[in-house]
């Protein structure tokens, strides 16, 4: 879908490379400018071409400037000011290519009192308010491994910003600087949760919300130490859950939204689900409107019949990977290969020296 869009990525860690990979998954041409030695393999480089360059040298900087001459966007994830000190900031790059979209991926953003401080996705999600309700009242708010901050609050917001600015540049001829801060994206995601305050699903305190105190929207441990999830919020789904569990008509469960009963109900569910292995509960409720699913590790998810039918996972070179998302016209797309670091340096340098298009694959 993104064929013809050209991206130069100044490689970093986490959300920037994921964003560039996602664009490559969807058909964009991506050249990853990497530091360090050749031969390393990074799954986030799939579908890209890789060149090695030292941006602290004049040759490395000129390579980047030549690459962006015909590019739609540049992606970088350095701390604020680093690219400027390398003479590769937005002003320099857009002087070479006025329609270039300059995508900046950071945790704290390009300005603000904490802009220059180090951090990771859990720090950004914590400060934004996104981590506060994650977990139960009896445990500290738990971090979600890179998904809440780096990917959801970071990479996906950078992707949307880049594509929006590229569309604008194609009609106006003028590029833009996209300031994608994880703290901003994580906060923006809370708009849905904030809307639930109006209907009483969410309060200002942990342990007083449907996701951290109700019995019908929760995670439970099974007899084999596997876990299952319930999400039976709507009355018809809650009624089916009680039917499946043999609790229809039980006076303890007839009033779903009596919060005073929730601790007792949750304790009963805890003991009930702990009495049988996960497979038992899957056989009883999976695929029904009880809003049920097991908690699966990625290798288990890859073998689940639903995800097998959708071909969500695949294995290449003994490495488990996920396929392209979203899908268009119900087609399953297998993403490009994962290059070794620097694999395309000679090819791209030769094209530049010959004044040929660096975007033409060999």
Provide a short characterization of the protein structure.
With 362 residues, the protein is an alpha/beta fold. 36% of the residues lie in helices and 14% in strands.
Task: Describe this protein's structure.
The chain has 362 residues and is of the alpha/beta class. The chain has two domains: 6-189 and 324-353, Crotonobetainyl-coa:carnitine coa-transferase, domain 1 (Rossmann fold, 3-Layer(aba) Sandwich); 214-301, 2-Layer Sandwich (formyl-coa transferase, domain 3). The protein is built from 15 helices and eleven strands. The protein has helices at 15-25, 58-68, 82-85, 90-96, 121-128, 147-172, 182-188, 190-195, 210-213, 235-244, 262-273, 278-285, 298-301, 305-309, 345-353; strands at residues 6-10, 29-34, 49-52, 73-76, 101-106, 177-181, 217-221, 227-231, 292-295, 313-316, 319-322. The protein has a six-stranded parallel β-sheet with strand order 3-2-1-4-5-6, sandwiched between helices. A three-stranded antiparallel β-sheet has the order 7-8-9. Strand 1 (6-10), helix 1 and strand 2 (29-34) form a beta-alpha-beta unit. Helix 6 crosses helix 7 (182-188). The radius of gyration is 24 Å and the shape is elongated. 34% of the residues are buried. The mean pLDDT is 93.
What is the CATH domain class of the largest domain?
A: Alpha Beta
Number of continuous helical runs:
15
Q: Considering the protein shown, what is the CATH homologous superfamily of the largest domain? A: Crotonobetainyl-coa:carnitine coa-transferase, domain 1
Determine the structural class based on helices, strands and strand pairing: alpha/beta
Q: Low-confidence segments, ≥5 residues, pLDDT <50?
A: none
Strand numbers in spatial order across the main sheet: 3-2-1-4-5-6
One letter per element, helices H and strands E, the order comes to EHEEHEHHEHHEHHHEEHHHEHHEEH
Report the sheet-strand fraction.
5-15%
Helix content: 25-40%
CATH topology of the largest domain: Rossmann fold
Tell me how many strands there are.
Answer: 11
What is the architecture of the largest domain at the second tier of CATH? 3-Layer(aba) Sandwich
Number of domains: 2
| Rounded Rg | 24 Å
Mean pLDDT over the full residue set: 93
Give the N-to-C terminal Cα separation: 21 Å
Largest sheet: 6 strands, parallel
Shape: elongated
């Amino acid at each position: 879908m993104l064929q013809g869009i050209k991206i130069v990525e100044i490689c970093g860690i986490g959300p920037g490379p994921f964003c560039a990979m996602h664009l490559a998954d969807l058909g964009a041409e991506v050249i990853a400018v990497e530091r360090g030695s050749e031969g390393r393999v990074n799954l986030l480089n799939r579908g890209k071409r890789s060149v090695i360059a030292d941006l602290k040298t004049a040759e490395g900087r000129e390579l980047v400037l030549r690459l962006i001459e015909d590019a739609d966007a540049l992606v970088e994830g350095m701390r604020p000011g680093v690219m400027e000190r390398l003479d590769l900031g937005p002003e320099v790059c857009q002087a070479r290519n006025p329609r270039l979209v300059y995508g900046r991926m950071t945790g704290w953003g390009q300005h603000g009192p904490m802009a220059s401080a180090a951090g990771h996705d859990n720090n950004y999600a914590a400060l934004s308010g996104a981590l506060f309700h994650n977990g139960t009242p009896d445990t500290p708010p738990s971090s979600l491994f890179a998904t809440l901050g780096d990917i959801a609050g970071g990479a996906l917001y950078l992707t949307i910003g880049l594509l929006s600015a590229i569309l604008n540049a194609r009609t106006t001829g003028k590029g833009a600087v996209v300031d994608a801060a994880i703290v901003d994206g994580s906060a923006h995601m809370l708009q849905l949760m904030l809307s639930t305050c109006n209907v009483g699903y969410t309060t200002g305190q942990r342990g007083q919300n449907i996701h951290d105190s109700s019995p019908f929207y929760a995670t439970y441990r099974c007899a084999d130490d596997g876990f299952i999830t319930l999400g039976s919020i709507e009355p018809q789904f809650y009624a089916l859950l009680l039917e499946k569990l043999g609790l229809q008509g039980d006076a303890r469960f007839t009033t779903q939204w009596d919060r005073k009963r929730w601790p007792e109900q949750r304790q009963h569910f805890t003991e009930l689900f702990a009495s049988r292995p996960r497979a038992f509960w899957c056989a009883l409720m999976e695929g029904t409107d009880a809003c049920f699913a097991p908690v699966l590790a990625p290798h288990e998810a890859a073998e689940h019949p639903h995800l097998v039918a959708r071909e969500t996972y695949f294995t290449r070179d003994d490495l488990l990977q996920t396929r392209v998302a979203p899908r268009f016209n119900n087609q399953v797309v297998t993403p490009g290969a994962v290059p070794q670091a620097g694999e395309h340096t000679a090819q791209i340098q030769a094209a530049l020296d010959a004044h040929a298009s660096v975007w033409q694959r060999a």
